[in-house]
Amino acid sequence: MKQFLSTAIALTFLSVIPFAYAEDKDDEPKSSESMATYMLKRLGEREAAAFESYQKAMATEDVRSIEAELQSIVDGYEKLIGAAKEYSPVYISFGMFLHRTGERKASNAMLMRADELDPYHAIVKNQLGNYLAEEGRYDQALAFYQMAIDLDANEPLYHYQTGNLLFEYKRFFIDDKLFLPDSFDLQMQESFRTAALLTPTHLPYRLRYAQSFFDVSRPNWEAGIEEWQQLVEFPGDPTQKQLMELYMARARFEAGHHTAARKIIKGINRPELQKSKENLLAMINAKHPR
Predict the structure, then answer these.
(1) What is the CATH number of domain 119-201?
(2) Which of 27, 116, 150, 183 matches a 20 to 30 Å C-alpha distance to 249?
(3) C-alpha distance from residue 92 to each of 33, 77, 118, 131, 187 (Å)
(4) What would the pLDDT profile of 219-264 be if each residue is shown by its tens digit?
């Protein structure tokens, strides 16, 4: 595989959680598979250490030695694949490694091979779904996300990404008659709701579920207002709290409670929310002039 570890590309993996798919085994391998597991574990350890060192080296621009180590890890993965062609964990780990370095197509190829060898890994189905979604192949992406959910229904990320896929490609799903409009809205919102229920302390999932009430054609505003009320009380700084109150005001307005909405808006005084506050007031005044 070509040399690819430049500083520009390397920046892409600073915000990604390290991944190394390997099982814990005794340090003394006893068979061809346990040898592969042993070597894969060592590559995972080197990978984690190299990425950690790379982040520290970025500040001093002393990255060449780390890039050499990462390239050596690539070579190690390729040699391991040559020695254990039917061992799916090495394809998974190498595929995720390549994804972190921005090598999307090569990553996808590795994960496709892993899926051929062992089709029961939810993380592989999810990652293949991500690739297909990025390529605009939304119907296939949905199928892979659903397979990931079937394999691990308690992972909120898979439900959350399903909701995002449906939202981004809504027109295409409906135009292709893969969903009826009403059933589409129900499925999209249920995906966000499930992610939120599985991780009630994770604000991004809770926030996206609450926002989904603004995305559907026939929202249940009573449920939406209840969700926003809970988010107003969610631990956070004063700006976050007032942002949730602003959303609450909009939900109240959409539900026809314009007087209550104005009352909430009156208490919002954070300068960074001033423009949004003015825009919402303009919407309310346009429909309910004083």
Answers:
(1) 1.25.40.10
(2) 183
(3) 15, 11, 10, 14, 30
(4) 999 999 999 999 999 999 999 999 999 999 999 999 999 999 999 9
Element of type H or E holding 97: helix 88-100
With both helix axes pointing from N to C terminus, report the angle between 181-198 and 203-211 in degrees, rounded to the nearest 10: 160
CB count within 10 Å of CB 53 equals: 16
Q: Alpha-carbon torsion 182, 185, 190, 193, what sign?
A: negative
State how far the Cα of 103 lies from the Cα of 125, in Å rounded to an integer: 18
d(CA 109, CA 1): 13
Report the candidate in 51, 54, 76 with the shortest Cα–Cα distance to residue 64.
54
**How would you classify residue 19: left for phi > 0, otherwise alpha for psi between -120 and 50, otherwise beta?**
beta
Q: Where are the domains of the chain?
A: 1-115, 119-201, 220-290
Encoded tokens for 92:
């998974």
